[in-house]
Amino acid sequence: MFDTLITNGTIIDGSNKKSYKGDIGIIGEKIDTIGLLSNAESKEIINAKDSIVCPGFIDVHSHDDFKILSERRITHNILQGITTMIVGNCGFGISPYGAAKEQMSALYQVDSLKYKWNNFADFFDLIEKNPPSINVGVLIGHHTIRRAILNEINKKIPNSDELNKMIYLVEEGMEAGCLGFSTGLVYEPGRYSNTEEIINLTKPLKKYNGVYVSHMRNEAEKLFHSISETIHIGTKAGTKIQISHLKAVGKENWGKVGKALEIIENHNLNGIDINADQYPYTARSTMLKALYINGTFDESSKYSPMGKSTSNEVLLCSVPGEESLEGKTLEDIQNFYDLPTEETVEKLIDVSDKILVAAFGMKEEDVVEIMQHKLVMIGTDGLDVGSKPHPRAWGTYPRILEEYVIKKQSLKMENAIHKMTEMPAKKFNIKDRGLIKENNFADLVIFNESEIKDNATYINPKNGPSGISFVFVNGKKAVVAGQETLLYNGELIRAS
User: Fold this and answer.
1) For a Cys-Cys bond, which of 30, 122, 149, 311 suits 330, CB 3.0-4.6 Å?
2) Is 270 helix (H, G, I), strand (E, B) or coil?
3) Phi, psi for residue 24 in degrees, rounded to 5
């Protein structure tokens, strides 16, 4: 007897192969049987007629590191069908604890936790004893280990003793079960590091088949150079490579994505294991301070590694201490103060150096071209902070399905789901997930193709989608009819 039997569904299994009609029988955490099972006995039967059944989505680019323990509910992810997320991106890592707390405070208010940990092994023990609502894999963050070892965060070159201590922290994380190592080379303190430092820190990954994941040094006028640096680091270290949220920012850089994708594909054809991920929006989300220190608003220069944005292209998402400013544009504030853009930004940073913004700057045609490439998967880069977070935190996956599969037909449904499931599972060595297959974990999404709708907007971002009837995490119903069941059934994904 099955615990749950899903009947009459259109199964898209994640493999990029054509959909088929079938039934799925679940026992415990696993998919037990796939076939024509309408006469089988089951404790519960779900009729998935007129619906698609697919693997749970795997978000390779999450920033919910502290939320895993502080809240354990990852509402904005689970409602959109995400059943596994990978944290520790852009160099913002979870261990060591003291440095992590300090580093994460640049992204959001770090509440005092009832738990502390000495290292990744301790952290993983805590997760296993206090599971979150979805599965979680972890990357080692470059910023955090650099902050933990160096006395000065803006130190350009660590001495040999400091470097060895940083390498030890990477080795500890990989031995504990981390999936890889990430950098964020436009942010502090990672922006002060040179290529050789990153190569040395990445080398321990090879033994564990880990992934080097990078928010590159420049996503604007030096995009090609940054891709080359990223590939150089991965090849020298002998590791797999993942380029985070691939884009070309700033109008003067629009159209460069074709060449960027060509560079990536050529290296892939030459045997380099390289992929990229992407969120389906023309606005990025980041810290206002990061844009400022990288020259986004500096009128004396036409270049910035984070691209140029005008004041009407920057939306305030989170302003600690001045929540009334959330949802306003930088232009709104500029007009109020009657100051030039850069001086307005300086004034805002005086209010708080932890302001998060959504900054427009990408071309829609570039977004689609990246999305369609065979080496690109999907990630949210989501951060559910403030009253007006970037809608990608709540809407990335339903937006892909509604906007780019159904409306624009930029992707076929099978290909879109492949980019959200099996592709990331293979890249990050996530075993027995990302594919509807007998004996795989029953992480599943059931949605109606005619009803799927992304409800997260820049004005009202904290809205889950319509059209998702069920989300299963490890065989249990985590979402029913668009509502969480408040089930903490996630598991820690350790490197295997």
Assistant:
1) 311
2) coil
3) -130, 125
Q: Is residue 94 part of a domain?
A: yes
CB atoms within 10 A of CB 195: 14
Question: What predicted TM-score, i.e. pTM, was given to this entire model?
Answer: 0.96
E strand intervals along 251-385: 274-278, 283-287, 314-318, 356-360, 376-378
Q: What is the C-alpha R_g of the chain?
A: 22
Q: What is the span of the domain harbouring residue 338?
A: 284-361
Same domain, 50 and 68: no
Whether the bond between 391 and the residue before it is cis, its omega within 30 degrees of 0, is no
Same domain, yes or no: 252 and 375:
yes
For residues 290 and 146, state if they share a domain: no
Same-domain pairing of 330 and 263? no
Q: Let me know if residue 425 belongs to a domain.
A: no
In CATH, what number is assigned to the domain containing residue 318? 3.30.1490.130
Tell me how far CA of residue 60 lies from CA of 139, 282, 377, 427, 472, in angstroms.
10, 19, 8, 10, 19
- Same domain for 188 and 290: no
DSSP code string of 357-395? EEEE---HHHHHHHHHSTTEEE---B---SSS--THHHH
Task: Report the interhelical angle of 160-176 vs 195-202 (nearest 10°).
Answer: 40
- Provide the domain count of the chain: 3
Number of neighbouring beta carbons within 10 Å of residue 100: 25
Q: Are 314 and 326 in contact (CB under 8 A)?
A: no
Name 96's bridge partners: none
In a domain, 86, yes or no: yes
Q: Which has the closest alpha carbon to 188: 354, 70, 381, 326? A: 354
Helix (H, G, I), strand (E, B) or coil at 186: coil
Which tokens in the block code for residue 243?
């380029």
Write down the residue that tokens 């984070």 correspond to: 306
For residue 271, the one-letter residue type is: G
d(CA 397, CA 154): 37
pLDDT tens, per residue, the chain with 496 residues = 999 999 999 999 999 999 999 999 999 999 999 999 988 999 999 999 999 999 999 999 999 998 888 888 999 999 999 999 999 999 999 999 999 998 888 777 776 677 889 999 999 999 999 999 999 999 999 999 999 999 888 889 999 999 999 999 999 999 999 999 999 999 999 999 999 999 999 999 999 999 999 999 999 999 999 999 999 999 999 999 999 999 999 999 999 999 999 999 999 999 999 999 999 999 999 989 989 988 889 887 878 888 888 999 999 988 888 888 888 999 999 898 888 898 999 889 988 888 899 999 999 999 999 999 999 999 999 989 888 899 999 999 999 999 999 999 999 999 999 999 999 999 999 999 999 999 999 999 999 999 999 999 999 999 999 999 999 999 999 999 999 998 999 999 999 7
Residue 208 sits in the same domain as residue 316 = no
Clarify whether residues 163 and 140 are in a common domain: yes
The residue from 361, 380, 414 where one domain ends is: 361
